[in-house]
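Re: that backbone. Tokens:
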């Protein structure tokens, strides 16, 4: 072989080896650049209740990032709050990635982990609760008051699909009284808030109070009273309503002052005569009125039956007391 051809072939072989070496060096530098270009964030935002190593990485390749999603770093703080993660802890987690020169990656001394959040205002919860109660209460004379919800409070919740559930079964058969109702807030079907509310349900009734004072024994009429509207939480008050019209003509059983409420015990039938009084008794028969006199054996109240001793026959007869003081004999 001519010497010139041999030298030429040797030179080409040297050039190929040199180019191959340059290529290996470029690949090594590229790989090293990938490793060293990986960075660690100083402020990390997460939505879930766990933070993974992938949340802390930046400027890294897809495969490394996928592997990092399997390595848990910490539980997240409450929504809207933050916590510090020490850099040395991140370094230990990087070791699990099994990448070269992980110890040469620049890691901040402390990293802030922040939990993203959404809010719901207590007024929105109150509106939903009011709508629920309104659907339950059919009697418009019932009124209610909601206690336990802070006014205009913003609840910080995890990010996700939000729903509200109200435990309203207690309101199915509503009457006046107090009810404890629970409101649960869910995000992605997981309960994140449990709120206790107290519902006061009262019924509107009309009561009558004295416009002026009255003395015991005075005859009652509607001019003595005025009507007021009140709401009661106790169902017994609702059931014990009275109509003052039924007491007209009766007398006060006790003295009353202006502003006093009236009740059934405040009235009694008017006493027409007293025991042992001489009274006139009569009987009607086919248009004929027969009268007699007798002695009252008991007090006589208007409209009530009373026993009297007949002076003529010396027998006891029963009659109904009239407002004119006479007694109409009851024929058996």
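Recovered sequence:
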């Amino acid at each position: 072989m001519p010497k010139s051809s041999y030298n030429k072939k040797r030179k080409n072989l040297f050039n190929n080896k040199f180019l191959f070496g340059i290529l290996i060096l470029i690949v090594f530098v590229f790989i090293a650049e990938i490793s060293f270009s990986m960075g660690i964030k100083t402020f990390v935002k997460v939505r879930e209740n766990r933070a993974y190593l992938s949340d802390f990485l930046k400027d890294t390749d897809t495969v490394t990032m996928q592997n990092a999603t399997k390595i848990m770093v910490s539980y997240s703080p409450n929504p809207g709050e933050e916590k510090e993660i020490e850099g040395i802890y991140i370094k230990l987690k990087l070791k699990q990635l099994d990448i070269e020169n992980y110890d040469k990656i620049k890691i901040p001394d402390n990293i802030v982990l922040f939990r993203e959040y959404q809010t719901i205002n207590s007024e929105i919860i109150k509106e939903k609760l009011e709508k629920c109660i309104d659907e339950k209460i059919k009697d418009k004379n019932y009124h209610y008051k909601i206690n336990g919800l802070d006014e205009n409070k913003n609840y910080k919740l995890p990010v996700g699909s939000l729903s509200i559930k109200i435990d309203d079964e207690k309101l199915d058969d509503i009457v006046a009284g107090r009810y404890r109702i629970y409101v649960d807030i869910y995000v992605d079907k997981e309960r994140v808030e449990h709120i206790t509310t107290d519902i006061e349900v009262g019924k509107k009734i009309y009561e009558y109070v004295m416009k002026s004072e009255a003395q015991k024994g005075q005859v009652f009429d509607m001019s003595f009273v005025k009507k007021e509207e009140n709401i009661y939480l106790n169902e017994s008050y609702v059931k014990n309503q009275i109509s003052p019209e039924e007491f007209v003509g009766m007398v006060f059983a006790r003295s009353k002052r202006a502003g006093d409420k009236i009740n059934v015990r405040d009235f009694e039938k008017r006493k027409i005569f007293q025991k042992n009084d001489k009274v006139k008794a009569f009987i009607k028969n086919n248009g004929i009125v027969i009268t007699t006199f007798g002695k009252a054996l008991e007090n006589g109240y208007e409209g009530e039956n009373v026993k009297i001793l007949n002076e003529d026959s010396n027998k006891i007869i029963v009659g109904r007391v009239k407002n004119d003081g006479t007694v109409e004999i009851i024929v058996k």
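Confidence is low (pLDDT under 50) at residues 25-36. The chain is about 25% helix and 40% strand.
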